[in-house]
Please model this.
Amino acid sequence: MMGLDPFAVSVLSIVVLALLGLPIGHAMIASSILYLMISGLDMGTAAEQLLNGLFTSYILLAVPLFILAAELMNTGTMTTRLLAFCNAFVGRFPGGLALVNVAQSVIFAGMSGSAIADAAGTGKLMQKMMTEGGKYPPQFAAALTASSAVIGPIIPPSIPVVIYALVSDASIGYLFLAGVVPGLMMGLFQAAIILSSARRRNFPVEPPVPVRQLPGITLRAFPALMMPVVLLGGIYGGATTPTEAAAVAALYALLVSALLYRSVTARALYHSLLSSARITASIGMLIAGALVFNYVVTVENIPAALSAWLAGFELTPIAFLLIVNVVLLVLGCLLEGTTILLVVVPVFIPTANALGIDLVHFGIVCVVNIMLGLITPPYGLLLFVMTTISGQPLKKIASEVMPFLIAMLAALLIITLVPDLSLWLPRLFGYNG
Model:
């Protein structure tokens, strides 16, 4: 093993194992053990880092609970009632169902915290509704569903924000608040694209819902609409921690679906729990691998070395943020978002601190970048999800997604250059950053 650079071998090992089809979490664990072996360090350190990281991070419990809440919503009729509510208010405008797609993502964002949960849950319903009777081209419906699902993890709650809070020690409560305005802005940018395309492409207008029916539709959707209030009210009212609020959200989704709407059977509940466990195990292995590999990165002093290297360029905070945007957007085309948050983002945090960049604002910039990676060709994960759901070729969906991606890149630039957009609401609730 003499003459080999342990870190280079470790990184190369991750790439090779991933290309051979090994899940990235497993690849990081195996490569980290290889690093420890070549370096002559105790290989038991890998298990120690893994166990310490997973069992001392109380905040990580929020992840499976948010996943369970989303599964319970999809199992019951909460999502269909929310769609009816959105349709009643925005369906009457040009491109009505397309606007409903965006509106439901904004509302559903306050419940699941996951872009994949949004696309796989309400996305299926929206794909069917938009393509029935040839109302919208199926590739457009798929592209819009993927694009609107990106909003989910930006508006609270958010699983990526929970993971960023884990690696940055930033306040998860203030991070949740910081995502509200950027998330709403991205929804408005998507709506602008739809309205500009509606007349040119002759998108249909949905029959207006009579005003006398609005109270009934709102009342039926009201328990579902209250879920974000229950979730965020508990956090910012001081009654619960974010993790406890995630547990309350899951319980609330179960009680509303099972007792009030009577739409969840024992069998459906079992499948929701099973699906949540599978997704959690998948994310858990990824987090475990990243925790072990982050130890390797720390031993190699990579964050400090990068910070010192960047300091030599005398970058301004804005220049640094723009470089981070480019790096994360490129990586988002190739890597899974959680991996980027756990492995790449921590390397940038010391430099962001040194430049005086607020870590709450930095977290939102990072999360938005990573979410855009989900719809960036050629490897955007949401594009593959919608290819499966819609049956449309990836090439057609990628072509239709480009106007939305360009609009959201413009929104990202504004979010990056104007920190007050992210920090205004946290400051209103006492944040001093």
User: Anything to note?
Assistant: The chain has one domain: 42-428. The two ends are 48 Å apart (CA to CA). The longest helix spans residues 266-299. Residues 42-428 form one domain.
